[in-house]
Amino acid sequence: MCGIIGFAKKGDSTSLSCVEILKQGLKRLEYRGYDSAGIAALTKNGMVVVKDVGTVDKLFSYPEIQSIEANVAIGHTRWATHGRPSKINAHPHTDCEKGIAIAHNGIIENYIDLKRFLSTEGHVFSSETDSEVIAHLIEHFKKAGMKPFEAFKKAVSMLRGSYAIVAIDSSEPDKIFFARNVSPLLIGIGEEVKFVSSDLTAFIKYAKRVIVLKDGEVGYISPESVHIESIDGIAIDISSRISSIDASIQDVDKGEYPHYMLKEIMEQPYALAQTFSSLQTQDLSDILRELENARRIYIVAAGTSYHASLLGAISFKRFLGIEAEALISSEFRVVSRAVKWGDVVIGVSQSGETIDTLLALREAREKGAKTIAIVNNQFSTIARESDYVIPMRAGPEIAVAATKTFTSQALTMLYIVAKLAERASIIDVDAKAMMQGIKMSYEIAENILNTTQDIAKAIARKLVDKQSAYYLGRVFGVPIAMEGALKLKEIAYIHAEAYPAGESKHGPIALVEKDFPVVFVYIGFLDEHIEGNIEEMKAREAWIATIAPENMVHGSVARYSDTIIKMPRAPLETRLITYIIPLQLIAYYTAVAKGLDPDKPRNLAKTVTVI
Ligand code: M6R
């Protein structure tokens, strides 16, 4: 869950500043972790390492970093796993002689054994991390007579666990060595510069071609070349592995917005349009056939992607009468014995790197199930390892809190359901109208974004001092409520609980007293009983905000809601995709009103690659 960048540039490329490349790259990687940051550069005076706790901006305010000139350097932004966030635990880590520096993302499971062995060999460790052993292992094998790359490979072969590693060595100053196992790592290819990084957003400004490394691959970049081989030494022809990058620097810039999260919320009409037109160009026939013939369908995901999966599973059941179960991917073991040949497991993931989802899909494949990946990052491990891939093309999502990818995931799943309905000719489902409703989501999203800003801000002012809130819905409204509650929790640090509204009287209503905030998501389909739930809450003097279709604001909704977010008249499918938008805005404005940075929620990282 850390971010890595390394670059090797030509000595005469005056247009490329070492400090600028590192700073911009690390800032784009900050979403992966922001406990601490650091860089190591090979300058004409030797290795320079600067690191500290805190943000990338803080690191780059240090005078000693500003004057660095180097053609080869690495950087790291950390989300602590082994060792608390501190200056000594920040990466890069060096060997005893400070001639080798490494940055690592992942977990070295056998680091205690390695550390013990290296200590008996006289190595002195400066940090509490698992990662530092890598630098000392390389040093150990160099001392035994190996050349730098051989020593690096030998060191990597001793590691157990997950890793993306970059290493620089002052005895071979034009190269960055790299290795990958489980944790993502990409090579960026520009004319004057080569990169190795956890994410293409770090180098998109300078490189338009990319190679996605596979598990078990090692190699090095230099300003002129990229060399990749398997850990057992078989050279790999990279020509067939190079892909073009279709995202641009604008896609990863905040532009005029104060936060990435707001930018991405506001981008939803465009992202939905992109996802829809991309789906139209994809040949989904094999995927649809697999789903039609499936013995059983499981949808596995985490966090926001899980909430979109719940929406998908309800749609399979409700519109098609097909049994589909959404599961939190880390809980896949609950069903894994039941998964068999003939089943289809859909993995939904923005990053395509979430380890829990990846492992669930791997297990499903081992059991003989077919796997389908719905991902935003088409270069991801989940995309590469699945039998079929549906890329969403919502554009890069940088903010830790997922927003536009939730709406794109919801659209993608409803699109699949509409396609299946079309092929099955289900009597009471008008597949054509359904597709029309899905397509309308981007216009309606625009309308919602234009009309709900002020009311979202007013609700945020109400929530700002609260400790707790309920988010309630029924049927399709439940996953939307769950997603709204997750947003409030993760960026505004307010405890928010979502559950089916009918459950209130079975326990949770005991907490409700005067002014307790309750947000109702009223979709206007299969959830008319929500009126009774609104009444129940009002009877306990709760403060009620209801999201409701403007043409259905009557009865208890009108009478007992303290505030109503009136949503534009729209088909059901559009409502399912877009009703999350005001909840995203409420969470965003609440975090801002509390003086928090919504882009950097505490303890969280965008991509979770540890179990
Ligand atoms: O990349 P993924 O969609 O697999 O990520 C899953 C979750 O980690 C992610 O949705 C997380 O819950 C976000 N912080 C939600 O805003």
Description:
The chain folds into three domains: 3-252, Glutamine Phosphoribosylpyrophosphate, subunit 1, domain 1, CATH 3.60.20.10; 254-439, 3-Layer(aba) Sandwich (Rossmann fold); 451-599, Glucose-6-phosphate isomerase like protein, domain 1 (Rossmann fold, 3-Layer(aba) Sandwich), CATH 3.40.50.10490. Helices cover 37% and strands 22% of the residues. The protein has 22 helices and 24 strands. The strands form four sheets. Strands 3-2-4-1-10-9-11-14 form an eight-stranded antiparallel beta sheet, with helices on one face. Strands 5-6-7-8-12-13 form a six-stranded antiparallel beta sheet. A five-stranded parallel beta sheet has the order 16-15-17-18-19, with helices on both faces. The longest helix is centred in the C-terminal third of the chain and has 21 residues, at 404-424. The N and C termini lie close together (11 Å). The structure holds 5-amino-5-deoxy-1-O-phosphono-D-mannitol. Residues 302-305, 349-351, 354, 357, 400-402, 490, 604, 607-608 line the site of 5-amino-5-deoxy-1-O-phosphono-D-mannitol. 5-amino-5-deoxy-1-O-phosphono-D-mannitol is lined by residues 302-305, 349-351, 354, 357, 400-402, 490, 604, 607-608.
